[in-house]
Amino acid sequence: MTAGVIDIGSNSIKLLIGETTEADIMILEALKNIAPIGRSTFLKGYISQEPINLTINILEKYKKILNEYQVKQVFVIATTAVREAANRNIFVDTVRRKTGFEIEVLNVGDIVYYIDAYISYKLKDTYPIHNKNLLICEMGAGSVDVSLLKKGFTVMNAGLALGSLRFRQLVGKIAGSKEETTEALQEYIENEFSYLKRRMPR
pTM score, two decimals? Predict the structure, then answer.
């Protein structure tokens, strides 16, 4: 079976085309294009027209590549930048009308579920994931997604407003010295992790 996945992230759009073999998945194509959707979402609260147009152009290019590989099964997902946008429904509808792609907007639980599944698959021979406790933390451009597993069962999912793109925007807003900027960043990060600690089971 051949399938494709398109990941619309906060700072880039990725395409992965894979084919199943007897024991594993063989990657046929892996592409990445910069599309800073989160830049407008995290600053203005909505996705502006320029990143919408850029997204459509990139997806049209990916569509041609998928057709070249004759891929029939395609999954298109979007994460933090689309999820937090006030006009997310307009964005999803516009992309569907222009490209034919149906976007599934993932919440924190969905994202961590796929990460958990991938890690379980990758570590099945080296780490007894169903016999031990595991803390998974994934950092992207727009968020840090955290999952706590107890012997293979999810105990907690949490999404923190931390990410490389958010940090760059925060630094751009601070009109102070290097020390003041560092202090503001540290305080921002500590506040987010304080929230996480309050939610974490003992």
Answer: 0.83
Residue with the two structure tokens 């320029």: 50
Q: Which residues pair with 20 in a beta bridge?
A: 25
Residue of 149, 145, 102, 113 lying closest to 128 (CA atoms): 149
CA distances from 158 to 10, 122, 131, 138, 147 (A): 18, 23, 23, 11, 7
Residue with tokens 């595991």: 134
Q: How many other CB atoms are found less than 10 A from the CB of residue 35?
A: 23
- Would you mind telling me the total number of residues written for the chain in this entry? 202
Residue 96 tokens, joined: 């569907």
9-18: per-residue pLDDT in tens? Answer: 999 999 999 9
**Tokens for 32?**
């990445």
- H or E stretch including 81? helix 80-83
Residue carrying the six token digits 């990725």: 14
pLDDT in tens, 81-117: 999 999 999 999 999 999 999 999 998 878 877 877 7
Q: Where are the beta strands (DSSP E) in the chain?
A: 2-8, 12-20, 25-34, 73-78, 103-105, 133-139, 144-150, 153-160
Q: Which long-range contacts (CB under 8 A, 24 or more apart) does 177-181 make?
A: none
Give Dmax over CA atoms of the chain in angstroms.
57
List phi, psi (to 5°) of 174: -85, 115
∠ CA 5-146-202, rounded to 5°: 155
CB 80 within 8 A of CB 39: no
